[in-house]
Design goal:
Protein name: ABM domain-containing protein
Number of domains: 2
Organism: Moniliophthora roreri
CATH architecture of the largest domain: 2-Layer Sandwich
Strand order of the largest sheet: 4-1-3-2-8-5-7-6
Number of helices: 8
Radius of gyration: 17 Å
InterPro entries: Dimeric_a/b-barrel
Order of helices and strands: EHHEEHHEHEHEEHHE
Largest sheet: 8 strands, antiparallel
Distance between the termini: 21 Å
Number of strands: 8
Helix content: 25-40%
Length: 200
Amino acid sequence: MPVTEIAWFKSTKTYQNDHSLTAETARRLIQLDGLHEIYFGFQHEDPTIAYVLNIWESYGHYEAANKHESYAETFATFQPALEGTFQDISVVLAETTSIPKLKEAVTAGITEIVVTQLKEGGTAVVPSLIEAIDVSPYLFGHSWGPVHGKEGEYVLVVGWASREAHSEAARTGKIPDVIERGAKTLSNARIAHAKFWKAA
């Protein structure tokens, strides 16, 4: 099953001003077996926070890549973008639904990323919540799934036309009801918005 890796970290001013700083990292990473696509981005709420989103063929491919002899050398090329050490990078890996819709969400005007715990019975409710927002004219793709190795934790990725369009959608149609139902379903939700670009 495909796995989506989402990492975020405090970035250097150099990287904030020159996004090409990670081009060599992307060039090397995409050669790893099972890594299909790489996206880089910056958070809307705090532009110093940078993102990496990788789409892997499976968790096994991700594990094998981490053990590959070239992996450490490849990540050394990433250091100039990172404010701190590799231990300061937050990472989640999720078995997300619909890779085509995930790609659509990541290439939208703005991408909403939610990392959350689901309350009891939440897994049965989430599909209906997704179905409800799917009719919004402002929405461009979505994908969600459980976080690997963290029971009860889930990731939701939703693409919107723009940050303003997302705000407008939150006040119209079925979205207000979705938000209310979501508040009863989700726990400790961490929500952020990012603008991504395809790196490889």
